[in-house]
Design brief:
13 helices, transport, TM_pro_TauE-like
Length: 345
């Protein structure tokens, strides 16, 4: 037992000594009733005005402490939920089914095949991204990034045909870069609902373009007006490539055949560089300020690389007319499905 009477300000007083009260200069220990544990007997405190105030203050502090504990628990729960959502978004591609990754790899292979054989890669890749639960705008931006990465292989494979065309490429490259930047900006400014209504018409138009066989024996343009139209056309195709891009290669090829006096293989190499640049510019814009599902872009890109690699070998064994008709027909069906979905949703 410690003495109940201590000296005021005694530095040697035990830290758990009873509270001191100053009464007419005397230092008396707190009454026994006040030193009774609160959760035991509270009658002594309740009988005194100061005791009731102490109890009220203690109750308020207890309520505040309980509130703090509840808030802390909610913060922890919110943090866990956010972490789980981020993990789910990464593992499942922003809400896609568990087999979504496999679907995107297969769709990427199909997109690479159709892209290398007929120039309509988005026929497979875009609807596959929609099937994983992505919105039209996010699906388009993700698709552009995957196509931009996979187009690197096409550009590298065209190096032999690009020899002696550096000046030509450098003259046209700024036009498609400008077009790709404008197309990406238009995507970022287009509301998702409006984009969903526009895309079916773009897919239908691209499918019809596949049925058009541009003349490869046409005389190259030489007039000033013809060159001006070529410049405008290249910029316009660059804008379309950055905005959506389905069958942009077919249109660009038709323009370059008329603008460049060269073989189809060399013209195709220039086309690969120009469209690859416009896609790259749009992809950078989407990656920085857009909405991209990276977990969906990775498997799609892997499939595209495989399809781009195998596509030329398969195309050599298929009749080109039947190939174009089949892909164009599938594109028109897809356009009708996308339009119905956009109107009814």
């Amino acid at each position: 037992m410690y003495e109940s009477i201590t000296r005021a300000g005694d530095p040697h007083a035990h830290p758990f000594a009873p509270e001191r009260h100053h009464v007419a200069g005397a230092e008396l220990a707190a009454p026994a009733a006040l030193r009774t544990p609160v959760d035991g007997h509270r009658a002594g405190l309740e009988d005194l005005p100061r005791g009731r105030a102490v109890l009220d203050e203690a109750g308020e502090l207890e309520q505040l402490a309980e509130t703090d504990r509840v808030v802390a628990d909610l913060d922890v729960a919110d943090g866990c939920a956010l972490h789980l959502r981020e993990c789910a978004g990464w593992c499942r591609g922003g809400g896609m089914a568990p087999m979504g990754g496999v679907l995107l790899v297969l769709a990427g292979v199909g997109a690479g095949l159709t892209g290398s054989m007929a120039g309509l890669a988005s026929l497979f890749s875009y609807p596959a991204l929609l099937a994983t639960g992505l919105s039209p705008v996010v699906a388009n931006q993700t698709n552009t990034i995957a196509l931009a990465v996979s187009s690197v292989g096409s550009m590298l494979g065209s190096r032999p045909e690009l020899r002696g065309q550096v000046t030509r490429v450098l003259r046209l490259l700024p036009l498609t870069i400008l077009g790709g930047a404008v197309g990406a900006l238009l995507v970022l400014l287009t509301p998702s609902d409006a984009f969903a209504l526009i895309v079916p018409f773009l897919v239908a138009g691209a499918s019809l373009v596949l049925l058009w066989r541009p003349r490869t024996d046409a005389r190259p343009v030489s007039s000033r007006a013809g060159r001006a139209l070529t410049v405008v056309g290249v910029v316009a195709v660059g804008v379309y490539s950055g905005y959506f891009g389905a069958a942009a290669g077919v249109v660009m090829m038709a323009l370059l055949v008329r603008a460049l006096a060269d073989t189809l293989v060399r013209v195709n190499a220039v086309k690969n560089v120009l469209l690859g640049a416009s896609n790259a510019v749009a992809a950078v814009g989407f990656a920085v300020v857009g909405e991209v599902s990276w977990s969906a872009a990775l498997p799609l890109t892997a499939g595209l690389l495989v399809g781009n690699y195998c596509g030329p070998a398969i195309a050599r064994r298929l009749p080109p007319t039947i190939l174009r008709l089949g892909i164009a027909g599938a594109g028109l069906v897809l356009a009708a499905v996308l339009l119905h979905r956009a109107v009814t949703s």
